[in-house]
Amino acid sequence: MASQTFKNIISKSGTQVPQFYSEKQKAAYTRVTTRLAQESERYFGECVPPVFSIVRIFRRPFSDIIQCVVQFDQKSFGVYIKFPLVKENVEGEYERIHKNTKREVEVTKEFSSFFSNERAVSVPDVIAFFPDELVIVTKEKEGVPLMSLIAQTGKGKPGSEKLDLLKHACFQVGKALKVFQKMPVLNMGKDELPSNLISYVDLRLRLLLEHGFIQMKERLNVVNYLEKQLEKTDGQTLNLCSVHGDFALGNILISGDQVVFLDLGMYRQGPPSFDFAYFHQHLDDLITNPFFLGTTITHLQDAFLKGYSENFIRESPLFLSYYVRNMVNQLLDLSRTDRLSPIKKIYQKWQYRQYLSNLKKVIQKN
Ligand SMILES: Nc1ncnc2c1ncn2[C@@H]1O[C@H](COP(=O)(O)OP(=O)(O)O)[C@@H](O)[C@H]1O
Ligand SMILES: [Mg+2]
User: Fold this and answer.
1) Which of 107, 121, 159, 238 could form a disulfide with 264 if both were Cys (CB 3.0 to 4.6 A apart)?
2) Cβ(135)–Cβ(271) under 8 Å?
């Protein structure tokens, strides 16, 4: 059977056969598909083994993904085989990734049953998890990543039809987040507590300061701002809920009215404003992209807020604190330009300056 599985590395998407990044990856793919085929009944509910055809192999910052078609006599469907990347020579890295991958599987399964009665919100079905290979296999969900949808539709001055489509998608995401937060909290991951926020942010500010990206005064302004915001929440009971933890535009699929949550490996318990601020700030990232108009992004943020339907969240001290936290994270990412080409370096440095000035505006305003 192994040879049958192995032979079918053919392209579905065009004439070009997808290339493996390495022999090691090819061997891992073969082992995984062989295991799936050998226990076809268990993984697919079919007595005969399927044929696998690779559609696409792509590398992401933290994983390699092989998208396949699984073909049986009477039916076929897509699967995603995700191989989280483990950085070599980093102490504790394997254990950390192993823990996150296991959490991604467990949390996805919990949400699968929690969402089973929801019409418009879902997660992919987990077909298999091979902890020894550090691999997750999920069934393909229909939909376009929100990031791609915005990139395809929102550039320049989108016409009202295109803008309405994107606004509707963001509205649905806001609504879906509300549903997500109703999930009784699972005891997984390290709690996201506002009391850890200042040390978290300041660690990153110190790095920026150390490398000359900000000045001491700027660091102190951010820390003072956070202290001021968090003081306002003193004495209030902290409302904790399910937090996605990486509620970014690439981790959400949109298909009409349907919202699919992907990539739940960073799940934890925390305040409702955490994911809300995360998403809001990820839309902000597009403001420093010259292809998008600021007004388009503002429309999308407003639609997201409308879907979430808690009008005052954007003025709340916790939202503002997490928003600033995410901005500082983004600044740190933008400050890392050493591996870029000269052109990209210039562009990213320009983005950095834009971002820093936006951060200062937020701090001054509130
Ligand atoms: N089950 C799935 N159905 C449809 N698309 C998927 C599925 N799993 C992954 N993808 C696609 O692969 C991309 C990366 O998947 P993700 O789980 O977010 O990996 P990473 O941890 O590398 O970000 C997603 O943005 C989506 O386009
Ligand atoms: Mg992802």
Assistant:
1) 107
2) no
CATH 3.90.1200.10 fits 144-365, yes or no: yes
Is 259 within 8 Å of 120 (Cβ atoms)? yes
Question: Where are the domains positioned within the chain?
Answer: 2-139, 144-365
For ligand 1, say whether the CB of 80 is within 6 Å of any of its atoms: yes
**312 CA to middle of ligand 1, Å?**
32
The CATH code of the domain at 2-139 is: 3.30.200.20
Residue-wise pLDDT tens for the chain (366 aa)?
Answer: 433 444 444 555 555 678 999 999 999 999 999 999 999 999 999 999 999 999 999 999 999 999 999 999 999 999 999 999 998 888 999 999 999 999 999 999 999 999 999 999 999 999 999 999 999 999 999 999 999 999 999 999 999 999 999 999 999 999 999 999 999 999 998 999 999 999 999 999 999 999 999 999 999 999 999 999 999 998 788 899 999 999 999 999 999 999 999 999 999 999 999 999 999 999 999 988 889 999 999 999 999 999 999 999 999 999 999 999 999 999 999 999 998 999 999 999 999 999 999 999 999 987
DSSP element (H, E) containing 135: strand 135-139
The pTM of this model reads 0.93
Tokens of 168: 């509707």
Two tokens, residue 339: 């591996």
Q: How far apart are CA 261 and CA 121, in angstroms?
A: 8
